Every structure is written in structure tokens, then in C-alpha cells.
Amino acid sequence: MNRSPDTMSSDDALIEAIRIEKRYRQVRAVDGVSLAIGRGSCFGLLGPNGAGKTTLIEIIEDIIAPTAGTVLYKGRPRSFQFRQEVGIMFQQTALLSFLTVAETLETFGRLYDSTDDVETLIRTCHLEDVKDRPNDKISGGQKQRLLLALALLNRPELVFLDEPSTGLDPQARHNLWNIIRRVKEQGKTIVLTTHYMEEAEKLCDDIAIMDKGKVIARGAPEKLIHEHCRRATLAVPKDRIGANRHKFSGFSRERGDKILFRTEDVNGFIQKLLAEGVDLSGVNLTTPNLEDVFLKLTGRSLRE
Fold first, then answer.
1. What is the pLDDT of residues 197-227, one digit of tens each?
2. Beta bridge partners of 71
3. What pLDDT digit, counting tens, does each position of 239-250 carry?
4. 13-226: which CATH number, 3.40.50.300, 3.40.50.2000, 3.90.550.10, 3.40.50.1760?
């Protein structure tokens, strides 16, 4: 069972970042971030553009060095063992166009001491129909599944997924999510960065939201929603409530032919509607989600 980040000890963590800083002249891209990622969990790192999440992940992956701070893998500084036991699915990876999907997996496999069976990976990532097709003749969804297969090639304990479903249509995205769930069921630890809040909410056990180089919130998706966006919205048709509007607290605004109310006590509000004889047909309920939390904490203004 995965522990919450609040109760996790160093012994529970597969990888741990301790007081990480990264400075570029006057810019502090990562500002004293500490976090531990539990074994077998799917950890999501979210943040607006420029929040520092990519820099932090690249430090944890050992791609760039921190200005200050330490990263521990299995309680020790990272070594050659880390590089053999980690898999990374980059957002963009250049593939040789003249190699087939199967040949690409076989070629990359020569970089590791030990690898998974190529045919098994092809089945796991649903690449059977394109395994003999050149890399430049596969679709976007097929390429993302190939990149995931490459990240799993060395049977990693820790898998980094950088924006895995960017650019995919809904069908391809959900297909990829199902594969990621099966990977997690194998006991692997997953670190996911994404701009899709639905993706993070559906896949992650634990989420950290970064902004301006710091972690500003951390917890399970449902915990973050409960802490930061408790109020649901009920849209009641005007002709159902009429002059009784003043009897209900939580009035938000009018939208078209409906009146919007916001409340933390949905059941109590509905009981009040029924007690006042309001017909519930046409009443719509919208509950808060992770996107609401993200926008509340990081703001709604556009960042480039």
C-alpha cells in the first residue's frame, strides 16, 4: 500500500529530492524543493509554463546538475545502478526513419546490461500490427507507444513519462493510459509530468503542483480537491425557482436560463430545494476537479 507523502519515511521512498535549487544567473528556476516519491506509486508533477517542473525532473533524472541539494535513489546517491534501473519517455525522441519498430527496440536494447523480451514489449504496448513498419510510417499514437516501450526496455524500477499523451486524440490517449495503468500494476514507480489535468487525476496516486520554483501543494487528487475546491455548483432553471431565489444561500450568478449556486453541502442544498417544492428536472450538478484546483492555485492568466 502506498503511503501518503505526509507520513512517508526515507525508507518508503524509491527516490528523494532534498532541498534542490537550480539558479541561472538571477533566475531561481527551482527554489529549495524537497520531495520523496514512494515505491510503486504514480507521482504527478504539475505546473504552469515556467514553474520549474521540467528543470526539477531533469535534475532528478540526472540529466542536469543542481546548483544545490541532493537526490537519493534507494537511500543513496545515484550511481551506475540508477542509470540501469531507470526508464525515461521523453516528450520528443528522434528515431532513425529507416529502422522498423522491432529493429529500434533491438538496437536500443544493446545499451543495457539486461533487457525485457522485445516481443513481450511489443505486445504490452500494442505494437504488433506495426512492428515491421519503418518508424516514419507509424502514427502519432503508435510512436508514443513505441517511446513508452523504449522506456520500459531495460525493465526499469522507476519510469519517467514526460507529457506522454501530448498531441494524441482522445482514443489514442485513453489507450495509452490503459497501458500505463498496467505498467503500474507491475509494481513500477512512475513519475508523470503532464498539462492534462484529467490525465493526472486518473493516473496519479500523489500529485505535487509547482509554481515559481516551489511546490505549492501536494497530495492525492481527491485530497487536493477537498482542501482547495470544496464547493460544487448547481445550475437551477430560472422557471423552477422563480421568486424563491432569496431563500437559498450560495447564489453565484445567472447564466442563460439558469441560476448558479455554489455550496459545500450538495445533499443539504438538494433537500432544501425539495422542501421548497422545486422540481429537480433540469438541475445540473458540477463537482470540482483537479483543473479547478490548478487554476485556483496558479491563476488563470496566460503564461508563455
1. 999 999 999 999 999 999 999 999 999 999 9
2. 17
3. 888 777 778 877
4. 3.40.50.300
Supply the pLDDT for residue 7: 53
Long-range contacts: 101-108, Cβ < 8 Å, 24+? Answer: 101/127, 101/130, 101/131, 101/132, 101/133, 101/135, 101/138, 101/142, 101/146, 102/131, 102/132, 104/135, 104/146, 104/150, 105/146, 105/149, 105/150, 105/153, 108/150, 108/153
Contacts of 221 (CB under 8 A, 6+ apart): 200, 201, 204, 207, 290
The set of residues, in sequence order, having a beta carbon less than 8 Å from that of 245 and lying 6+ positions away, is: 251, 259
pTM of the model: 0.86
Would you tell me the crossing angle of helices 140-152 and 101-109 to the nearest 10 degrees?
A: 20
* Exposed / middle / buried, residue 150 (Cβ in 10 Å: 0-12, 13-18, 19+): buried
